[in-house]
Amino acid sequence: MIPPVASAADDVGVLYSQYGRWLQDWLRRRLGNVPDAADLAHDTFVRVLRARTDAEIREPRAYLASIARGLLVDHVRRRSIEQAYHEVLASQPPQQVPSLEVQAMIAEALLEIDRLLDGMGARVKLAFLLVQCEGLTYAETARRLGISVRTVSTYVARAMLHCCQLLP
Amino acid sequence: MAAKRISGPEDAQACALREAAQWYARLAGETATARDREAWQVWYEAGPANQAAWDKVQAVCRQLGQLPGALVVPTLQASARQRRVFLGSIAAAACALPVAWWSARELPWQRWGAAHRTGVGERRTLELPDGSTLVLDTGTALDIAFDDRTRSVLLHAGGVLADVRRETEPARSGAARPFAARPFIVATPQGSVRALGTRFTVSTRDEISHVEVIEHAVQIRTADGFRPPPLGAGRQQRFNRAQAGPATAANPFAGSWAQGNLVVVDLPRGAWTREMARYRHGVLNCDPAVADLKISGAFSLDDTDAALAALVNGFPVRIRRRTDYWVTLLPR
Q1: Has residue B1 got a pLDDT over 50?
Q2: From the list A33, A90, A132, which residue is nearest B64 (CB)?
Q3: In this complex, do B71 and A76 lie within 8 Å of one another by their Cβ atoms?
């Protein structure tokens, strides 16, 4: 008789019962709070379920930690952008503050832009954003960053290429 | 730049993208000429690969264009700065035991990452999983951490009025462990406040925590482990990481802010101004000449302009408004 093939979900279930608690503690030490740690631990196991191959996981803790680390970075990114956006809003007079729905959309858009620009050098990113978002000329951007106009142009091209490569 | 390779379909695409980006940079500059635009047109019409590449450039521009431009750079820079601090501290985050929620220094991102926050002048009521309630004061940031051992509120900034429900044994028996009511604790960077009863406020500001007990009692424990005697109803006490100050009589209207009123009896105007200022955007200050004059009354926190008007009506002060957001109290 052919033994039943264990489903991917069963394997993850075993992984969860053995390492779930450990992962939550690992995340809680880095996040400082329990509910976020529980959420990210859950997301980690969902990722494991989706990524499941037949290959045996030899180092479960290292494997879980590497997935969790990626989720942690994105979680921190989201929180820090929400916070920075709220600080910018707090310094505006109340009449100029948009509705909560619009705020949520803006925060999400900022997050996507931040992800899109990730991996670029800080000055390349800044030059690009000054031109694109603040509408500065190349000459103004060059003055602001202490670089030549030619370098601004190079940075803009490099940044645009980086973004295009990330689009589907 | 990548070295030249034998061309193939993927490389044609990559090449088109590179050229599209360079065309974009050329045309986005203020020195672009009509001749440049004509040359671009030729490039664009050369084939579908170039057109597809240019579509991506346009998609990037659209994505960046959907936001208020002035917002983007300050927000992304501020958030990147915070993240550098956090990622630097991850390396050092060896272990933090559940008993001590904070290590030697409060990590700034904990406040910024807090799940529950109120803005300036905002007030909110939170219903907790055990039926207790918290009213959050202006400028508060906190996290809830309930597990099977404790009911904890991690107060990073601001203040709360806590209404604590007593935990009773659940109706069903056969539990794995004998029932033990979980302690209700409000933890701040300066230490913790454990409920021995039902109603009290805790706030943390400028490295000092302040507790006012409205009903029953609480037990304070500073981060360094100092424990003063339990603090009873109608009493207040301040503490820092190391020790607690003397317990004194509390304002009989402690926690009135939770209903949107600042109720004071014989409070010096300087102190009144400092309290009010937390509920307003901008600057509110008080000329030293009137700072000591005492005020009594109930003042609306939801309409601070009305509160200021009430002040002018009842007391010898006048208000100078440099702008809506810069108000000073002066003698009349």
Answers
A1: no
A2: A132
A3: no
A45-87: per-residue pLDDT in tens?
Answer: 888 877 765 556 677 887 888 788 888 878 888 888 988 898 8
Cβ contacts of A85 on chain B, cutoff 8 Å: 71, 75
Q: Do B75 and A88 touch (CB under 8 A)?
A: yes
Using DSSP, state whether B41 is helix, strand or coil.
Answer: helix
Give start and end residues of each alpha helix (H) in chain B. 9-28, 34-45, 48-65, 69-92, 108-112, 269-277, 288-291, 304-314
Q: How far is CA A150 from CA A153, B29, B43, B187, in A?
A: 5, 10, 22, 55
Angle, alpha carbons A74-A76-A77 (nearest 5°) = 60
Find out whether B197 and B218 touch, Cβ atoms under 8 Å: yes
Q: What's the whole-number mean pLDDT along residues B140-156?
A: 82
Per DSSP, B244 falls in state B
What would the pLDDT profile of B126-143 be if each residue is shown by its tens digit?
988 888 999 999 989 888
Amino acid present at B291 = A
Local structure of residue B189 (DSSP, 8 states): T
d(CA B190, CA B207): 7
Candidates B98, B116, B142, B90; CA nearest to A25 is B98
Provide the H-helix boundaries in A100-148. Answer: 100-117, 122-132, 138-145
Find, among B64, B75, B281, the residue nearest to A85 by Cα: B75
Please state whether B178 falls in left (phi above 0), alpha (psi between -120 and 50) or beta. Answer: beta
**Quick check: ipTM above 0.95?**
no
Strands (E) across chain A are located at none
Contact state of A116 with B63 under an 8 Å Cβ cutoff: yes
